[in-house]
Amino acid sequence: MSTEPQLITYVDRLAGNLRGLDAVLRLEFAGAFAGVHLLPFYPPIDGSDAGFDPVDHTAVDPRLGDWDDVARIGSGHRVMADLIVNHVSSHSTQFQDWAARGGASAFDGMFLTRDAVFPEGASREQLELIYRPRPWPPFTTFEIAGVSREVWTTFTNEQVDLDVSHPSTWAYLLTVLDRFREVGVDLVRLDAIGYAVKRAGTSCFMIPECFAFIERIAQATRQRGMEVLVEIHSHHRFQIEVASRVDRVYDFALPPLVLYGLLHGDAEPLGQWLDRAPRNCVTVLDTHDGIGMVDVAPEGDEAGLLTAEQIEHLISAIHAASGGTSVKATGSAAMNLDSYQINCTFYDAVGRDDDAHFLARLIQVLVPGIPQVYYAGLLAAPNQVALLTDTGVGRDINRPYYDDASLRAALEQPVVRATLDLLRWRARHDPVFQGVFGCKAVGSRLRLEWESPAGCLYADVDVADRSFCIDLDGEQIVAREGFG
């Protein structure tokens, strides 16, 4: 599979609709991206979680277009779409039918209740074992055929969890996969998969039964000619373990490690991770979610990629670099546990330092994996404080809206033009990145190497002074001393 760069974007927030996005990909972004991750385009795109709470997972929100528009984008770019495995909207037809009819509903059993997991009741100790991404209990009380029932709601009370072991749920998921296949989706992202299976007496996160379910849904996806990307935010051992079972896994450790290097002048934690990180990964610096701290953190007696003290220093450095605006979007404002993710645009996380921002992207495209570039990071977006104030949703600080004028202005920024040129260079030389990778880090310096039949590449990067030099087959092709 090609490892050429891919774009991550909300359709409406970047280009208005699917036809507008197709035009941007073919014109302004021409040559930079071989693929695009279309963040949820199912109705409603403006629900409780920006499309991750689908009322109808088999439909396109008509405000964006239709499935033909998705297929049109797929005719020129590889398309990745989200299979939201863990939950659906409480406003979905299936849930509403069950709420009205209870046991008489065809969807009875499709939704996970507290008593389905704890038929004898749950002790305090059992409830405290449950791993939660949000600071409240994972249950919401609904009236189901006139009876109050506690339903699992891992994320928000409008996102009702599915019982993935139930035949109705499996049929539902296969229906979505069939629709993806019909319109030419190439890569399926299994959203929130780590929470999909719950068992009493466990953390209800990435338990053995979850690994079995990942293998089952991955097999069904491959049978339909699509590849699988697993989305898990947790201790780095899970990324390594899952990588052997699926086509692609995210390298969510990369963003905090790159930031640690840039903000503290220390490349060694990043170099140590790159020595053992999965090679079949999708790399990111930023996404529609926050910058994950849990991905590099210790867990119990298991060491992290950073120590607890280093993470504390990193969080403080990000908040300082953003002028304190990231504090307003993190913790309770983000509906996250405080140390789970930090909400901030990547540009503000490096203090709007163009050299640091470009160097981070350079590191991303030089390490193993498919580099996916989030639209806000691509366009060097600052924190969206006004949007955060308006919506009260912490993650909106990193989910900007663009119109024609603001997009043109963003594209005029020197760091954005340089980043697009870098992505085009990476796409042209993709065969080099199919070879054997090696790295070494000493202090602030990072040495990256690729050896392949298509060529040999050597890169020296200094995260402290922001300098770098890249050599491809004996020819120095990049050497930059800064935007200033």
Helices and strands, with pairings:
Elements: E1 6-9, H1 11-15, H2 18-26, E2 35-38, H3 67-74, E3 78-84, E4 87-89, H4 93-101, H5 114-117, H6 124-129, E5 139-144, E6 147-152, E7 159-161, H7 167-183, E8 187-191, H8 208-223, E9 227-230, H9 236-243, E10 248-251, H10 254-264, H11 268-274, E11 281-283, E12 291-292, H12 308-321, E13 341-342, H13 346-349, H14 354-366, E14 370-374, H15 375-378, H16 385-391, H17 404-411, H18 414-428, E15 436-442, E16 445-452, E17 455-462, E18 467-472, E19 475-480
Parallel strand pairs: 1-2, 1-14, 2-3, 3-8, 8-9, 9-10, 10-11, 11-14
Antiparallel strand pairs: 4-7, 5-6, 12-13, 15-16, 16-17, 17-18, 18-19
Helix pairs in contact: 2-3, 10-11, 10-12, 10-14, 14-18
Report on the architecture of this protein:
- A hairpin with a 4-residue loop joins strand 17 and strand 18.
- The strands form five sheets. An eight-stranded parallel β-barrel has the order 1-2-3-8-9-10-11-14, surrounded by four helices.
- The chain has two domains: 352 residues, Glycosidases (TIM Barrel); 69 residues, Oligo-1,6-glucosidase, domain 2 (Alpha-Beta Complex), CATH 3.90.400.
- It is globular.
- With 484 residues, the chain is of the alpha/beta class.
- 51% of the residues are buried.
- Helices cover 34% and strands 19% of the residues.
Entry keywords:
484 residues, alpha/beta, TIM Barrel, Oligo-1,6-glucosidase, domain 2, 2 domains, eight-stranded parallel barrel, five-stranded antiparallel beta sheet, 18 helices, 19 strands, 19% strand, globular
